[in-house]
Amino acid sequence: MIWKLHPVTPQKNIIDKTVQGLRDGKIFIVPTDTVYAFVCLLDSPRSINELYALKKLPPTRHLSLLCRDVAMAARYAQNISSPVFRFMKAHTPGPYTFILNAGKDVDRRSTGKKKTVGVRIVDHPFHAALMEQLDTGIVSTSVIQEDEFDTDPEQLHALFGKRVEAVLDEGIRKNEFSTVLDCTEGYLQIVRKGIGDASALETED
To answer: N or C: which end of the chain has fewer CB within 10 A?
Structure first.
């Protein structure tokens, strides 16, 4: 199924159906502040396994964890340093992925069996509305085929429509990455430059 999603004021019925579907263990393809992504709930282990199968990823690869805010992120991470915490508070929601030391509440399926977790706090009205109803992080991975980001929802539906509950169509997206920051040593180190402003790091203590 394809559900047409308004980019600024997402429809309540679509939000409610997505929330219920996630709680029922369903997988969706949704827009983010970067590209389209597969999503499911962190407490749905079968769905997490299916995300790996959809992307044909080895079990050692990370998936991202989408959180409502820094307070939720802190539930799934441990020992977030003061400089990292301040940066996250000042620059989220936004197109950053923070690599943090994983806490005990993170399902190891979503971390690639590693002791770190990639956290995103997405700057998008649909995600803000979802998170108002959810107390659990959302596992996410960007939709990629043949080393390219697929941005056309019609194409995504043709490729994956039989394996996901719905594709939420917000139109064709640009091929944009988040900026990935390694925070595991207590400071922020750029791993990948994306659309998140990396120059902001230069002003941090």
So the answer is: C
